[in-house]
Amino acid sequence: MKKTGLFKKSTTYIVASVLTAAMILSGCGNSATKAYSGSTVAAQVTAVSGNHVTVTIGELTEDTSQPGDSGQNGGTAPSGSAPSGDNNGSAGTAPSGTAPSGTAPSGTTPPAMPSGSGSSDSSGSTGTAPSGDNNGSTGTAPSGGMSRQTFTAGSTSLTLDFSGAAISVQSMDGSTSSGSISDVSVSTVLEITFDSKGKVSSVTVTQSGGSDSQGTPPDANGAQNSSGSTDNGTAAMTISDDTSVSGTEYTSVNDDENALRIDGAAVSLDNINVSKTAGASSNTDTGNFYGMNAGLLAENGANVTIRNSTVTTSTDNGNGVFSYGSGTTVNISDSTIRTGGNNAGGIQTTGGGTTNASNLDVITQGNSSAAIRSDRGGGTVNVTGGSYVTNGSGSPAVYSTAAISVSDAVLTANNSEAVVVEGKNSVDLTDCTVTGSMNGTYNDDSENIHNIMIYQSMSGDAAQGNASFYMTGGSLTAKQGDMLYVTNTSCNISLTNVALTLANDTLLTAAGNSSSRGWGTAGSNGADVTMTASRQKLSGKITVDSISSLNLSMTDGTSYEGSINTGGAAGTVNVTLDSSSAWTLTGDSYVSSFDGNTSSIVSNGYHLYVNGSAVL
After folding, report:
1. CB 513 within 8 A of CB 520
2. Number of helical (H) and strand (E) elements in the chain, helices listed first
3. Are 287 and 317 a contacting pair, CB within 8 Å?
4. Are 451 and 478 in contact (CB under 8 A)?
5. Nearest by Cα to 289 from 260, 259, 255, 317
6. Which regions in the chain score pLDDT beneath 50?
7. CB 291 within 8 Å of CB 324
8. Could you read off the pLDDT of 464-512 as tens digits, one per residue?
9. Of 36, 25, 42, 43, whose CA–CA distance to 198 is shortest?
10. Where would I find the H helices in 158-309?
11. pTM attached to this predicted model
């Protein structure tokens, strides 16, 4: 990977790039950090939770020699920017897919607009700094002495307390300014200085980088090049003038290329066929965030209407229809989308874009390929009618880092949880038929099997805050695992007259996680859930661990046949049961408070304990 140089020549630092065997360390230092007493190391961030920052240790070796010094073939980069990194990294896997306001998503900053529109050639030239290719060729570094750095991962991961450290930010010219913990994010490269006792005394933010949407360590190569701009590849065909097109076929077989790109124009497309049958993606993040390698990409405020059309892709990052950027709107109806690669969603929305879909037939085959998908920067997605089916691992029918609403649709995930909401976002379902079948935990045996997941990955792709999952009418079926799982976030869950089919007699698990995938810090990454059930039939166990909480309200004739924390009191649980609703115990239950009439509870031979005292 090629990066703009930030340290002196021939200096070797310790750097992070892979999360392994994390050790939670206090700011006071201990035997692990004392090994670094009085020294300065470099580290790349893999997770941030408050003032606790997880990094992994390795080596960063700098080379200020020019490409010609070693016989490399390099041109001269544009003044003031530098060659971008090569793009041979691949994203980690996790629940992908990657909660409601009805407006553009709150809290996330849209990623930078990709520069330029792609041309029909495959060179990738867009008028930005040249990108690094895969044979080691680089351009000459720009004036100012910037140099390359090579990252080599180590095997030690540390979680450090930055609360007492002085934080500064280094600019590209080497000068520094005062910073704060908000400048530290996933994939950022830091220079960390420890005092004589092994306590973190100062931190310098030296580089920022991209991260994936999965909450695992980010790609070694982020979506941004060293000049801070982005490149979303080329296009076999670009439409940049207002027009209407009917009965036309658009194809692509080249790397990092869209078959069709709509750039800033108002375009009507009827009965078209978009096909991307070949062409690799050089950077998974760029494909996920900006639409590189997608079948059809709309950007730069485009307004696109698609009817009676077919979009087919078979490549990684081959998202079918991609809406990128604030002001961009895609309206698509009565059309068919098929994707075959990994990280290839059906309809994808990022950067504040809008997608309105009606009566689509969508099937995805790859991993991390949600049928209705959003990623960094989110947006607004409205879906009415149609069928949305996924067959890959980590491929929910819906993955939300946006405000997504779906009505009167069939949502089926054959090898994944049905729905995932990440961070301060929403999913609102009305009269939908929803089925999930999560068959594994993505190589993490410590994780939970579930059907609906609400979480915060800490990847930087979704703002931290209250998530929402609302469902009214329809049916929700779990073929594997818990029905609802919440971790490392706060959320609202609302169920109204939904037919629930459980897989394992567990309705809800609100709990912390091992943090092995960067989802917060173990011991403080629980869930705070507010759950409302109206005209709802509920059944199954509810578990709330000691670092989580639940406010459960049952109203309007709701019936619940189940138990809460049968193993004894743990996290705070407040239950409200109105006079029209009823609870039948299926095990001893422990809650912190109960608001209702105990005559509405059928003990069934079990006991209800409120704040440690038996009331039934």
Report:
1. yes
2. 1, 51
3. yes
4. yes
5. 317
6. 1-28, 31, 63-151, 172, 208-229
7. yes
8. 899 999 999 999 999 999 999 999 999 999 999 999 999 999 999 999 9
9. 36
10. 284-290
11. 0.67
Two tokens at 324? 């990128």
The tokens for 370 are 């949600």
- Convert the pLDDT of each residue in 215-257 to its tens digit: 332 222 233 332 334 578 999 999 999 999 999 999 999 999 9
Task: Report the length, in residues, of the chain.
Answer: 616
Residue 240's contacts (CB-CB under 8 Å, 6 or more residues apart) are 117, 262, 263, 264, 265
Tell me what pLDDT residue 153 has.
56
- For residues 73 and 64, what is the distance between their CA atoms, to the nearest angstrom? 16
CB distance 173 to 25 below 8 Å: no
Burial class (CB in 10 A: 0-12, 13-18, 19+), 177: exposed
How far, in Å, CA of 487 to CA of 489, rounded?
6
Could you give the CA distance from residue 601 to residue 588 in angstroms, rounded to a whole number? 12
Residues 6+ apart with CB under 8 A from 87: 131, 132, 134, 221, 282, 283, 286
Distances (CA, A) of 192 to 41, 255, 584: 5, 39, 56
CA distance 167 to 170: 10
Reference 483, options 530, 542, 431; nearest CA is 542
Q: Which residues have CB under 8 Å from 555's CB, separation 6+?
A: 532, 533, 534, 576, 578, 580, 581
Q: How far is it, in rounded angstroms, from Cα 137 to Cα 83?
A: 10
Confidence at residue 429, expressed as pLDDT on a 0 to 100 scale: 98
Record the tokens describing residue 301, joined without a space: 């405020």
Name every residue whose Cβ is closer than 8 Å to that of residue 334 and which is 6 or more positions away in sequence: 307, 308, 358, 359, 360
Q: Tell me the CA distances in angstroms from 41 to 7, 62, 199, 564, one per residue in order.
A: 12, 14, 13, 47
User: Which residue matches tokens 């007699």?
Assistant: 505
